[in-house]
Specification:
Elements (H helix, E strand, L loop, with lengths): L1 H19 L1 E22 L2 E12 L6 E11 L2 E10 L12 E10 L3 E9 L1 H9 L40 E10 L5 E18 L6 E19 L2 E13 L19 E13 L4 E13 L6 E14 L4 E15 L6 E13 L4 E13 L8 E13 L1
Antiparallel strand pairs: 1-2, 1-3, 1-17, 3-4, 4-5, 5-6, 6-7, 7-8, 8-9, 9-10, 10-11, 11-12, 12-13, 13-14, 14-15, 15-16, 16-17
Length: 389
């Protein structure tokens, strides 16, 4: 009897120790509120204006549900995973699985970690740490731009659920990412992404079209963060390339920069923040250049710079403001040049550490004499509640 009790006690202790070495956390964000705005512009010489309003979601933060876990493998080695999907709480039919992040990896204490799967790029992670608006889904942010809504598209979470903005690539699949531990204030990150296929080409019956061929998608990126007391400086560069048998039309070079074929897509981001105590100041610069692999003379480039501040006015009231300018340049068919500006004002009232009320206003304006990029402006406002868990 004593032996049985001792065996049960030993097994229970062993199971408890094994369980303590691993953990799984469920987390998420639910963001719902009133969202409205208006769009004004000129296309083909005619004024085109519109307005919208709705009970919508994800104005301040994209609603999501995630699972993450770690397991201690001993000797300073650990395994970890993340699985995260986007949510649309105000749309009963649209909340299908949306792969925001899914990866698994290994970490070594004192060195860093390596992860494989669908992950954020180095630029997106750096923007998240240095954006005064914290990558909200409202117009007016020139570094993390959201396309102005119109009468046919009243949602504001138009960019956060995809893999691209006009400014940079948010995430890619088929990625391996390496991140170092903090070494005297420096943290380095690098990634490589690869998805190639090669199939036989066959002529379609009765046509001249072909199917198959080489479809090669690859890319890499590097980034470094330096933290010294209250100063954070980040520098990042990433290069993505897509090559396929289908020819990209020269007039569509910019639209195909976000996932098109036969494009060399180079992106860079630099930023700094400093915490003065009463407020935190931000300075950001970003550039993206997409070039046709057929001819380097056909390209589109977007450059923007932004400054901002964020501060707790009281222990429960937080406010932020940002403003920036930018420019589109291109060479090829139409070759439009566009200047744009944007600004945002926002505030949070924290009911608790996990729940806050918010109010955000954003505005953007672009000017161009080219019909391919007409002058357009937009205002966007939202009030809502956000709960994190």
């Amino acid at each position: 009897m004593k032996k049985s009790l001792l065996a049960v006690a030993a097994m229970t202790a062993f199971a408890g120790a094994a369980q303590a070495q691993s953990s799984v956390t469920v987390y998420g964000i639910l963001d719902v509120g009133y969202i409205g705005g208006n769009v004004r512009g000129i296309s083909a010489g005619a004024a085109q204006d519109g307005s919208y309003s709705s009970i919508g979601s994800s104005a301040e933060s994209t609603s999501r549900l995630g699972f993450k876990g770690t397991e201690d493998l001993g000797g300073g080695l650990s395994a970890f995973f993340t699985l995260e999907t986007g949510l649309q709480p105000t749309n009963a039919t649209a909340s299908t699985f949306n792969n925001r992040q899914t990866f698994v990896g290994l970490g070594k204490k004192g060195l860093g970690n390596a992860a494989l799967g669908t992950q954020y790029t180095t630029i997106h992670t750096a923007v998240g740490a240095t954006d005064p608006g914290q990558q909200n889904n409202m117009v007016g942010n020139v570094i993390y731009p959201i396309a102005p809504a119109n009468n046919g598209n009243t949602g504001v979470a138009q960019v956060a659920s995809t893999s691209n903005t006009d400014a940079y690539t948010i995430r890619t699949a088929n990625m391996v990412k390496l991140t170092t531990d903090n070494i005297k204030g420096f943290v380095g990150t690098a990634f490589y992404t690869l998805n190639n296929s090669n199939t036989d080409q066959t002529a379609a019956s009765g046509t001249n079209s072909t199917g198959g061929g080489n479809n090669n998608n690859s890319g890499w990126g590097v980034g470094v963060n330096y933290t010294w007391n209250k100063l954070l400086v980040t520098a990042n560069y990433q290069s993505l390339k897509s090559v396929g048998p289908a020819a990209t039309t020269t007039s569509a070079i910019w639209s195909t920069a976000t996932g098109g074929t036969n494009i060399q897509d180079n992106q860079q981001y630099y930023a700094a923040t400093y915490d003065f105590g009463i407020l935190k100041a931000y300075a950001q610069y970003i550039n993206r250049k997409a070039t046709s692999t057929f001819t380097s003379n056909n390209f589109a480039s977007r450059t923007a710079q932004q400054i901002g501040v964020r501060s707790f006015i009281t222990p429960t009231i937080e406010a932020w403001a940002s403003g920036g300018t930018g420019r589109y340049d291109s060479y090829g068919v139409s070759a439009p040049t566009v200047n744009f500006t944007g600004y945002q004002l926002g505030s949070n009232y924290y009911l608790s550490k996990r729940t806050n009320l918010y109010a955000i206003f954003g505005s953007t304006q672009q000017s161009s004499a080219n019909a391919a990029q007409p002058s357009v402006g937009a205002n966007n406002y939202a009030v809502g509640v956000r709960h994190t868990f």
